[in-house]
Every structure is written in structure tokens, then in C-alpha cells.
Design brief:
This protein is an alpha+beta fold and 772 residues long. It is built from 16 helices and 47 strands. Helix 1 packs across helix 5 and helix 10 runs parallel beside helix 13. 49% of the residues are buried.
Length: 772
Amino acid sequence: MIRRVGLLMLTIAAIVSVLTLNSQAQSVLTHHVREAVRSGSAPVMGRLPANQTMHLDVVLPLRDQAGLTKFLQDLYNPKSPSYRHYLTPARFTEKFGPTQEDYDTVLRFVRANGFTVTGGSRDGMEVQIKGPVSAVESAFHVSMKTYQHPTEGRTFYGADREPTTDLPFHLWHVSGLDNYSLPHPMVVKKADYAATHGIYPEAVVKHATTGSGPSASFLGSDMRAAYYGSGPLTGAGQNLGLFEYLGTDLADLTTYYNNVHQTNTVPITLLSTDGTSTACVDTRAGGNCDDTEQNLDITQALGMAPGLASLTVYVGSVDTAIISAMTTHSPLPTTIGCSWGWTPADPSTLDPYFQKMASQGQNFFAASGDSSTWSTRNEAWPADDAYVVSVGGTDLVTASAGGPWSSETAWVDSGGGITPDKIAIPSWQQLSGVINSSNKGSTTLRNGPDVSANANFTFYTCSDQTTCLANEYGGTSFAAPMWAGYIALVNQQLVANGKPTIGFINPTIYSQNVTSSYAADFHDITSGTSGSYSAVTGYDLVTGWGSPNSGLIAALTGSGTQTPAFTISAAPSSISVAAGSSGSSTVTTTVSGGFNSAIALTASGAPTGVTVGFSPSSIAAPGSGTSTATFTVASTTAAGTYNITITGTGGGLTQTATVSLTVTSGVTSGFSVSASPAVITVARRGSGTATITTAISGSFNSAITLTASGQGSSQTVTFTPSSIASPGAGSSTMKVTVGRNASIGNHTITITAKGGGITHTTTVTLTVTNVR
């Protein structure tokens, strides 16, 4: 009995000590009150019920911010003895995290104020709690009110003033005090994009003609082939994390892999960071499941790094809880993708965690957004934070299915620009040659993005156990997990070399890219515009430094002296052409090891009467690209099979490929194409059709693709089907949709049919009339 009384007195004394140690309320170091509340633009609608349960995350501050800043400077300085000597989570806590005494004090404080502790850790610098609104108002000296949202048709709740506590020290942040900004995935559906831009979905330009997926859509494996190639790195031994606000249904992942005839061998863990369900449940949408974002994040990461040791999906409802888990979980994810956007009350909220990640050798890749130029209306955060890698979007063309990179332009809606959150320019963007008059960047504020990758509507996705779609979704959502997977390849190589992993890449890539190695390390995107900015030579505010090139892994890993080289191939490698006709083959060159030169193309070994032309006649530096080789056969050329050598010469190197040309005579193998009717009349805003028919002759046996040109900018032309299946005889319905601003009068539409190395055309006259 005496012992029980003693324990009771000790407990009371502890509670009293928390309440009386400091009679003056301590402020919280970050902002919590929304500008709409401060300015009065969000009218007060009422108060939250006193007995309503709230879930909060109480975050403690760093203990030595100045020391951490100096540590990070040395950690990423190649000349420092501390270079890439990363900390473990426990060691970080020991040096820069809260003391055990402070953490215990917060635990006593929240329990004394009527809260239940539901999670958190000292290493995570947070205490997760739940309790009634009355406890929130009492503990943090606020009134929890409801307000009319100034830009959305809903109400939100929030504190009426900045929180304070009776603790003897400051807190860093209290997450969960408002729901003003609802996190949203960065993925974009083509139909929504078209509606926003006032065009038909069919008018959205797509370059998914060479993907390995259904309808030539791109798979994650296509992105690996384009940006990495066919090398041996798979991300083996590396752990990757994905930041998600909603759970997922892994059955959708299984469907994806079954449909594309691939197999996933990476173990996947769904981890709840704060009690949020890891199942595909969205309570904000009435319980409807939509795991499009979550599933595409997984497939893009695994497509780039198919041999990861683990992939963990960190699911939560509060940003600090999710990212805290990412900095403490074992195994620690060294590369992380985030394809969500939201607007915090204070953009510095996650800085302690982002800095902790950098100190632990972790990379956080954030999608830069899909609403073009950053502004207060177009959410930039967290992609404009100085301690994350911001990933923009491009429009990628590959040479073939599962083939190499061919060309790339800026994606029209790639997020980027100058931070609207007034975040100071980081040191690596202050290097000479980064910001200039061409890219129009800021010399005082953070610019973005840092890097980029494909984001056009060219992907294959599966979700919700209802449907799989080809070429319907796009966005920088795809690009961020791609980069997270790519850095897993880099880390695998570094470990194999006996070195530490890469850590936060921005200090490294910015310093490397202002040197002559840039062209070998990145595809410099120099064409295309998004909003107020255009892609230019070097760094720009649409695509950053660009997408990964063949030399980047060697540059980031120091894998010995690079040997510049290139390869050349031709597809098809065998063609049959009738005397008096012509055929073609696509010549592809791929560079490696820092090769950076134009490659001239020539042909030899052609028989009398055969000429070979190239368009273009050379591949521009750095040397990766394609050219169409056209074989023109005179009517007098003798029948037979001839091996023609295609030679590429550049950078002091020569490589060859062979095309086997079979010249036929007598019954000509080929096909013809015709259109019926040959003249169609369509009113503005209307549509009309013509039947395109192909007929074959001789031994012709090939699929025939159909394209259209000359229809005018206000018209769209589609073919159903888009190609005639082998052996090549069949028909397709050509639909012409006329825009409301189309020019009145006649337009000659040229239909081009290609197959078996043969090209033929026919025409349809389109007469556009006024709407009656």
C-alpha cells in the first residue's frame, strides 16, 4: 500500500512539473494558421464538436540546426574527410535529434492533457496522438473552427490562432490541425487534360508507337531500356520506398504483370505509418477505391529496377508521420519516390526530415506537377523544397519496343519555374553556368525541376480491379518513381565498387553538369515549352538537366575510365523490293561510355541499279538516334539477294550493320491502297468517314500501318484499325473530325500505307462546309 501511494505521488509530481515548469506558453516553431483564415477570406462557419476525435502528430525540433547544416556541407564536399560518411537513424538522433528527456517530457505532456499515444518514436522525432477536440483546444490554446473554403466547394477545419503549449521548450510542428489542403496524386487522365485545354482527347499528341505494352503503350521495362539500356544492373541489394497517402490493392499489380507477360520477383511491403489502412480505401471519396497512382508508382519503380531487395509502400494520412517512418524504417530506403502534391501551412515543415534523409544517404524524388508553371494556384510543394530532387516531365520517343532512346522534347504541362513558397536558392544552383538569361531562372530563389523523364500519355496502367488502360494516363507521377528506380541502379554499382551509396544527388549532378561531361550524362532537352518557360540548352525550368543518358551511371559511380563507343543496327535487317520500286529500313545508333560525336552514315555493296539514301544523312551529336535508309531499285536491276553494308563513322570510330536486300522480278510482291469514297463533305464540328482498302500481290506478307497528313490543324484523323494485319489485305475506317474553326473549302488528305519496306499513298478530298 505504501508503495502504491508513493507511485501515485510520483505520477502527480511528474504531471505538475510539466504544467508548472514554465508559466509562459511556448510557441511552435512553424506556422499552422492558413492565410485564408488570417485574412478573413475563409468565413467562419462554426466549431468542431468538442467530443470529436482528432489524430495529431507532434513533432519535436532538431537539437543543433547549425551543426547539422555544417555536417551536410562536409558530407557532400568531395574534398572533406566526412564525404559520404552517412549517419544511421540512431546516430542522427544522438547528434541532432531530441534528447530522451525532451521526448519523455512530450509524452508526459500529451498524456496529462487527455491524449492517447498511438505511435511515433524518438528517432522519428514525433509523437502520434489522438484525443477529443476539447483536449486539442486546451493543450494547444486554440479554438478548432470550421471555415468555408475560398476556392473549393467545401468547408474545412483549422485552428483560429497559432498553437502554443505549456512545455518548457518549443515544438517544431503539430500536424493534423487543419484539412485545408487535401493531398492529391499527380497522375493525369488524358480525357481530363483534353477537357482542361478545350480539345478532343483524340487530339492529344502521343508518341506511344513503339512501346511493348498493349496498343504500343510504354511499360516500366520500356523506360529502363530507353534510359539505362540492357546492362546488368537491376537494383540488387537496394531498398526503395514510395510515399503514398492511400493504400493499394496488390491484385492490380498482379493483373498488370499478367497482362504484359512479365513477372515481378521483388518483395513488396505495404506499411501503415499512422494507422491509415493499407488497403485501397479512399474515405474522402465515399469509400471508393482508386489505386491508379499507387500502382503506377510501383510498376515504374520496378520497371527500372526489377531486382530490388525490397520495395516498401509507406501509407499514411499525415505527411510528417509518413516521412518520419521513411527515415527510421529498417531496411532504410535509400531512394524514394513521391507523386503527390499538397500545400502545407508552412513549407519548412518537412525540412528537418529532408535534411535527415540527406544525412542518412537517402534521396527523395518529388514529381514537379502537371499544371505547367509553378504559382500559388499551381501547387509546387514538395517539389520546390531545397532538399528534394524535383522531377519534371518530357515527351519521349524510342527507336523500337523495348528499344533505345530516340528523341525527347519537353512535356507541355511539366511543372517547373521559380518557387512560389519563397524558398531560398540552394548552393548548387548558384554555380556559374546554371542560371542564365536563356532559362530565365532566379538567382535568389529555388528553381525547378532538377531532372526529368517521360510523362506523356503513353503508359499502360491497371487499377481498381476493373480495367487496364493504354495511353490514357500521364504526368510527372510516372517520372518520379522512374528516377527513384534509376538511382537504385547507381547505388548497386557503387556498393559493387566498394563505395558508399550516392546520397542526395543534387550537389553532385549540378557540379558535374556545368562541365563538359554533361552531354554524356544527360539527354539535354532543348525543344518544347510549358507555360512561361521553354526547354533550352543546359539547365532549364521545364525539364531541369534532362533525362538520364548512357554515361550517367559511370559518372555517378566513378566506374573507371569510360570508353566512348557506339553501336549501329538496322531494322528490318532483311527487305524484299521489286525491280522498279523502293523499300526502307530504320538505322539506329546508340552511344555509351561518354561518346559524344555526330555519326555519318554511308552504304556499300549495292548492286548496279540500286541506290541507298539516308534521312537524315548523319546522326547529330551526342550520337544516339535513328535514320531512314531508303533502297531504290531500278527496273533493270537483276533479281537476287545482296548484302548491303551500312557504315557509321564518328568520333574516330567505325561500326557497321548489314541489310539483306532481295530484288524480285516477274510477279511483283507488293500491295496497293485505295480510298472510297475519294471525296467527303463534312460540316464544321462534324465528322465523316472513308474506307481505306489494301490489296496484296505476289508473296507480300506484312502488316501495313496507316497514317494521314494534310488534313489541316483543325482536323483530326483516326483509323480503325490503325493498321492492317499480316499478310496485308484488308480495310480500315478512316474517321475525319472537323474542328469548329476549320477553314472552309477543300483539303487534300494523303493516306500513307507502309509495310514490308514498301510505301504507297492515296488521297481523299475533304470539303469543309459551314454548320447549317
